[in-house]
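Here is one chain, start to finish.
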Amino acid sequence: MDVERQRHSRGRDTLRLSVTYKFFVGSDGPFTGESFLGTSILPQWRVVAARHKIHIRQRVPVRYRADDRSVNRLDRSVWQQL
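Its structure:
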């Protein structure tokens, strides 16, 4: 997990939370992915606070395409808990 600062040309910086994860489907894997939560959804202070609510090795639901598991993302419920 990392909070990234995005610089914009008009001078206003925004933050986004980057969550990188690894998962297995049965004996297949590992597969990896990265999902983002940005300040367009939450105020900056909530993005920083959210970083402390997700922990390394915490189990999280992942959605993936059945025919191509490399196409995946965190389930929306992860963001709703923040």
